[in-house]
Structure formats: structure tokens, C-alpha cells
Amino acid sequence: xxxxxxxxxxxxxxxxxxxxxxxxxxxxxxxxxxxxxxxxxxxxxxxxxxxxxxxxxxxxxxxxxxxxxxxxxxxxxxxxxxxxxxxxxxxxxxxxxxxxxxxxxxxxxxxxxxxxxxxxxxxxxxxxxxxxxxxxxxxxxxxxxxxxxxxxxxxxxxxxxxxxxxxxxxxxxxxxxxxxxxxxxxxxxxxxxxxxxxxxxxxxxxxxxxxxxxxxxxxxxxxxxxxxxxxxxxxxxxxxxxxxxxxxxxxxxxxxxxxxxxxxxxxxxxxxxxxxxxxxxxxxxxxxxxxxxxxxxxxxxxxxxxxxxxxxxxxxxxxxxxxxxxxxxxxxxxxxxxxxxxxxxxxxxxxxxxxxxxxxxxxxxxxxxxxxxxxxxxxxxxxxxxxxxxxxxxxxxxxxxxxxxxxxxxxxxxxxxxxxxxxxxxxxxxxxxxxxxxxxxxxxxxxxxxxxxxxxxxxxxxxxxxxxxxxxxxxxxxxxxxxxxxxxxxxxxxxxxxxxxxxxxxxxxxxxxxxxxxxxxxxxxxxxxxxxxxxxxxxxxxxxxxxxxxxxxxxxxxxxxxxxxxxxxxxxxxxxxxxxxxxxxxxxxxxxxxxxxxxxxxxxxxxxxxxxxxxxxxxxxxxxxxxxxxxxxxxxxxxxxxxxxxxxxxxxxx
Length: 654
Ligand SMILES: *[C@@H]1O[C@H](CO)[C@@H](O)[C@H](O)[C@H]1NC(C)=O
Ligand SMILES: *[C@@H]1O[C@H](CO)[C@@H](O)[C@H](O)[C@H]1NC(C)=O
Ligand SMILES: *[C@@H]1O[C@H](CO)[C@@H](O)[C@H](O)[C@H]1NC(C)=O
Ligand SMILES: *[C@@H]1O[C@H](CO)[C@@H](O)[C@H](O)[C@H]1NC(C)=O
Ligand SMILES: *[C@@H]1O[C@H](CO)[C@@H](O)[C@H](O)[C@H]1NC(C)=O
Hints:
Layout: H1 5-8, H2 12-22, H3 27-40, E1 69-71, H4 77-85, E2 91-93, H5 101-105, H6 109-116, E3 120-125, E4 135-140, H7 141-147, E5 153-158, H8 176-179, E6 182-190, E7 204-211, E8 213-219, E9 260-264, E10 269-272, E11 277-283, E12 288-295, H9 300-303, H10 311-323, H11 340-347, H12 361-370, E13 372-374, E14 380-382, E15 386-387, H13 393-406, E16 410-412, H14 419-428, E17 439-444, H15 451-465, E18 470-475, H16 496-508, E19 512-518, H17 522-531, E20 536-542, H18 550-558, E21 562-566, E22 572-573, E23 579-580, H19 587-595, H20 600-610, E24 613-614, H21 622-629, H22 640-649
Parallel strand pairs: 1-2, 15-16, 16-17, 17-18, 18-19, 19-20, 20-21, 21-24
Antiparallel strand pairs: 2-10, 3-4, 3-5, 5-6, 6-12, 7-10, 7-12, 8-9, 8-11, 13-14, 22-23
Helix pairs in contact: 13-14, 13-21, 15-16, 19-20, 19-22
The structure holds 2-acetamido-2-deoxy-beta-D-glucopyranose (5 copies).
InterPro entries: AKR, Aldo/ket_reductase_CS, Cupin_8, JmjC_dom, NAD(P)_OxRdtase_dom_sf, NADP_OxRdtase_dom
Pfam families: Aldo_ket_red, Cupin_8
Domain JmjC: 158-312
């Protein structure tokens, strides 16, 4: 699973630094603490004058600031690549994106409410008194706008497809060889109170101020070694200096650092190459809104991490990597001023890595693996997976890629839609994730009951998944009688017993590792256990907060069988064809979600995991996919009553 890090490290430094930025200790405490160091310290020599800029804002130590290249029009993509990207030279283009509809429209909160009011975004909360309780939750734009002026909250999500209508591809990036490197379009929105640590990003950053201003202080990569980053072992790429009051006695080398200083106004864009340290402060507004495009180019921090390199070694490596890239680019396709939405539709939605904001990936991995179970077959299965079935292909594809990238390793498919095909294609094109790293669940539809048909069905699944074994095969139902199973009257079906025996054969031949059944009655399960030669590993059935299946789960527990839920979110089709979940909108769940500052869906998942139930929620909303994955990390112990409330008082049938 070590390979997963390559997905994450890319923007992790950026995001973590931002987080740390908001959760910096209270400034007055820092100031008084440091003041006493200076006055009571070993500076016995009263005549000694403190270095220039000591205990002042970061950057005031220099006599003269250096100047960035500032243009009033875009260079061509070819020139930009040659003179800036490849050479690691930052660039500011003033006013160049004033024509973006966003610049004109987003300062109007009524417009934001009207157009995006009901969309969900990731919002960070500041808790100055308790760093452990920094947290993230999803909020609609309306909810955010209702409170962001009064609270230390920071929308740090990503540009939604609807919002991307108000943006276009900046001309100098409008070349396939550049823009296709984009990995994330982020939206940064607050009431102009934020200020980051001095940090470095793991990606190229194309940052546009939409409303309000931002002051950027940049430090060249070769001076990174003066920022004492190697002393700071929380995370690579973050300097321990307090940017509001730099202690130059404690961090003397900071005095050697060159400073570039620029303030961005509406419609200005800055290009910050990977490796340039920076400190950023919002000013002006509210609303203070910016949009940034992160791009992978050399990704050298990612490649140099976590090997034990000093900042100096890392910088040398990054410079060499940049020099090794082609001197020029050729654009096959130009997308200058292409509406961002059109780009996203054409090339697939980019990958928000929101979860990184909440916890580091090692914790995420550890807790994800903590919620896993050893099946009766002896194989381990994660308890939290991602369901691909029942979604339109154009949405299921980006959703499944995103889930894989987010670290989901259990995937539930359905032979009746394109989910096997989609998963197979994604896995085949993701060499970093090895086949044995993922656990794939496949089903046999009841119309294929009987030996031959079952074998053919599994064979088809193997082909569609482009794999030579399946981790778990479930017989989807013991018969076609259930209403939703579409079967032909005369399709010569066999029995579920024949199917089971066929699966046992395939198990013996190494094509299937574990066997299970779905929607079987307890009497059928007893019969099955009676004759099964290969153990029954998994029983799947409908399960959620309302429908507890207590007896069935007890039966499974007594027989060492793992219970897997379907229908966890309680989504129902309404008469007019819309899908709704009375469970998800229940006020008790809402209360718990607010308590833990997350989504109702995440709470529901965590509640099921706590009951030892394996879940594979499905979603095409990238935010929800990220948040669902966050369920194992929820600190439910913080308010045990909320979980207990759901167990004891949520209306349910046993
Ligand atoms: C940067 O520029 C701003 C605006 O011109 C100025 O107020 C500030 O002192 C400069 N230097 C630093 C380190 O902030
Ligand atoms: C911050 O954390 C403390 C301690 O856990 C808690 O009492 C307080 O309510 C939290 N504040 C906010 C704004 O969440
Ligand atoms: C300051 O930098 C010099 C080299 O540039 C290095 O030898 C020294 O250890 C650094 N000091 C600290 C406190 O990091
Ligand atoms: C569909 O029906 C549900 C109730 O069954 C109702 O709440 C919802 O507003 C309806 N949606 C539309 C688009 O008519
Ligand atoms: C879940 O499984 C663990 C380990 O087998 C057990 O200790 C715990 O009691 C189970 N919880 C429930 C709610 O069944």
C-alpha cells in the first residue's frame, strides 16, 4: 500500500500548510512568549541591537526586496514554458483575468447564493484553543455565507462544475502540454483573516485573486535552507518561524533570505513554481475569494519524499529535475480562453484531495486498515468500500477514480451495469495500485443461477475486470422472485445450490478467493452452511439505521460470517422518479453530524462500522466520496452520547 503515497504527497504540503496557517497559535500568546525570551534571555549585553526585522512580520529583515517579473499581458504558452516553468521563474500577470465572469460576479453574495447556494463545499473550522479539534465539514454555500463573516471558517474546497462556468483557461496555460498537467482547481474563500506559515507547495501553482487582495511573499528555492525547515519535523516544507513575529535570534539564518513581495488584486494571476517558499496573507473583502490551479510538473517533493533528504539536497534534486525536462513544448491543441467547464467536461473532473486537509495520510491508512475483517476464507477485507453500481457511466468513472485515489481499497460491482468494465479500466491504467492491493466484489445475478450460467457469469466478470481472480463473489439472490430482479420466464435457470457448487469449483481453480451470498433468508443460509465445502465468508443484506437485521447479524456472528450492508443510506425512489433518503435527512442524524462536524452520510457509515458491518456506499459526488472515506477518522469517542443516541433512539426495526 506504500504506493498510495504518490497520490497524496503532491498537494499535501500546500494543504497542510494552509491548515496550519489557520490554526496557528493565538498571536498574542506567541508575542508575549517570545517577548520574554528576548528580554529575559541570555542577551546579557544590553547594548546589543536585535537584528533588523526581529519580532516583526516575516520579510522585514531585508534592506531591499527583490522584484518579480510582472507583465500586463500573457506570454504565449511556449514562451511561458521556456522562460518561466522550465526555469522556475515566477510570473505575475496583472489584471489579465478581469474578463472572467467570476471577477465581476462573485463579489455579489446574492449571486453566489442564487447560483451555487445549494452546492456543498468543504469548510475548515478554526479552533484556536484546541488544535485537536480543528476540523472540516461540508456546508452548502448558503450556510457558509450565513456565518463566514463572524466565525473563523475557511472554505477550502474546489471549484464546482457550476462555478467553473464563470472561469476560462488563462491564455498562457491554454496549451495541451501545459493545462493537461492540472490536478486540482481549488476555491479559497474567507473573510480576509487568514495568513499562512512560510511553506512550499508540492506542485506548480497558478493562483488568481477573484475578489479582495492577497499579499504574497516569495523566497527562492535556493534560500529554502535558511528557513530552518529541517529543524521542523512536523511536515517537510513548512518553516517553524512565526510569520507575524519572526524570532531572528532563534532562527538567525532567516536574515539571509531574499524576499520578493507582491500584492495581487482582482484578476491578477501569479505563477509560483514548485520549490519557491511563500507566505500569503489575505486582505480586502469580505468576500475574499481566490481560485488556484495546481499542476504536476516535476513533482520533485513527491519524489524526494519521504527519503531522508535535507532541504539543500532536495533543492538540488529539484533543480536538476527541471533542467532535465524538454527545453521547449509543442502545443498540439490550444485551449486559450476555453471555458473551464468545457475543459472539465472534456478531460474529466480533476481530483480534489480534500481529505488531506483533515488528517495526514498515514493516520488515514492506519484507521482505514483498522476497520477491516478477516474472512472465514482467511483473506482480509476492508470494512469500508466504494460501490460503483447503479450510476451513469460518465459519473461513475470519475467517481471510481477518485475513490481509488482517496484510498478506498474495497470495490463493489454489479454485472448488470458498466461497473466491472469501469473498475477494470481504471485499475489497468493505475500501475501504482497493484491488483493485490484491492479487494473486488462481484455478483452473480439470479437469472444466471445454475452451474453453466454461473461459471459463464464469473468468466464475463473476470474479462470485464481484466483480472485473473476475484476476491469475493456473491450470489445476488436465491431466486428471481424478488420484485427488482429482472429475469425472463424461460431462461432455463438452475438452482442457487448449483450456483454455489459452481463457485466452489471456481474457488478450487483459484479464480475466486471467497464466497458469499446476498438477500438469502436465514433458513436458506442454514441449508447452505449444511452442505458447503468452501466456507460461507460473507452475507450481504439490506441494513441501515432504520432496518437493523439484528437476528441475521447475530446468526452471522455466531457462525463467523462477515455481514455486509446494502442500502446503507436508505435511498428510496419516489413516485416522481427522484431519489431521496428519509434517513439522511432525519434530524437526529443531522444533530450528530453537526456534533462531529461532518456529513450525515459519514456518521451513518461510522455507526455501521462500529456495529462490525462492512459497507460500500456509492456516490458520484466527489465531496461525499472524500467525506465517506473520513468515517474511520471521526473521533466519535469525543461525544459518545451522539453515537449512542443513534443506536438507542433512532426509529428502527430490529
Ligand atoms: C510588501 O509590500 C507591501 C505593500 O507595498 C508593504 O506594505 C510591505 O511592508 C512589504 N514588505 C513586507 C515584508 O511585507
Ligand atoms: C474548541 O475546542 C474546545 C475543547 O475541545 C471546545 O470546548 C470548544 O467548543 C471548541 N470551539 C469551537 C469553536 O468549536
Ligand atoms: C545557518 O546556515 C549555515 C550555512 O548556510 C549552517 O551551517 C548553519 O547550521 C545554519 N544555522 C542554523 C541554526 O540552522
Ligand atoms: C418528488 O416527490 C417527493 C415526495 O415523494 C417530493 O418531496 C419532491 O419534491 C418531488 N420532486 C419533484 C421534482 O417533484
Ligand atoms: C465487533 O467485533 C469486535 C471484535 O470481534 C467485538 O469486540 C465487538 O464487540 C463487536 N461489536 C459489535 C457491536 O458486535
